[in-house]
Amino acid sequence: MSDGVDFGYERVPAGEKARRVRGVFDSVAGKYDLMNDLMSGGLHRLWKRYAVAVSGVRPGARVLDLAGGTGDLARLFSKAAGRDGRVVLTDINGAMLAAGRDKLIDAGSPLEVVQCDAEALPFPDRAFDAVTIGFGLRNVTRKERALAEMRRVTAPGGVAMVLEFSQVAAPLKPAYDWYSFNVLPKLGRIVAGDESSYRYLAESIRMHPDQETLKAMMERSGFDRVEYHNLTAGVVALHLGRVY
Ligand code: SAM
Fold this sequence. Notes:
By secondary structure, the chain is α/β, with parallel strands linked by helices. The chain has a single domain, classed as Rossmann fold. Helix content is 47%, strand content 23%. The strands form two sheets. The protein has a seven-stranded mixed beta sheet, with helices on both faces. Strands 1-2 form a two-stranded antiparallel sheet. α2 (32-40) packs antiparallel against α7 (173-192), α3 (43-55) runs parallel beside α4 (72-81) and α7 (173-192) packs antiparallel against α8. It is globular, with a radius of gyration of 17 Å.
């Protein structure tokens, strides 16, 4: 299949991946936050806080959160950007966005919410000081297109950030693989009633570009001074690309 793309360990036609990914997030939306806490032992909260801390987002900043799902990053950014800032929560999936919008309203911080594909953003050039995609790029069919769109909407002086699962340090790999392929799918079955979506999670992490490859992809997309920070021994990496 020459134009196939990865959906976990499967090769599927490019047009099929978005439909399969939608199925995953339609299925898990209601239990998404609980599963994140259980799977990571709460670590995902620290990874997200770290991303916001190094973003340099200050009061008044314009922030775009892509594939923002249930809105954790957007909520943290809205605190950093303050009343004079603008934070837009976006995602391709209506069920995830609805969960995020409700959570933000309950938390007393309603935000602008836009349903859109990270590969084709409905925003003008250079509109944001910070653009983020958290645990989302892995699920996008054409990652280069999403990175090019992130570059397009980032203002000069701004930053784009990719927070994503990455390649864990070699000594931890056997334990991490065991956890990923034995514990995660079972947890998914018990808590979310969905084993296959959490097997997809484990597989998609292995198929995602490693730290150096993603750095090179961001450089090719036109970002300056691309760097990455390994978090939790590379379980997650935060890539930052500047626009001058
Ligand atoms: N950013 C949130 C977080 O860190 O908790 C949610 C991450 S969740 C693992 C991945 C999200 O990516 C899902 O909500 C999914 O709908 C979204 N997604 C997948 N493909 C997308 C695309 N092409 N454009 C925008 N969002 C997409």
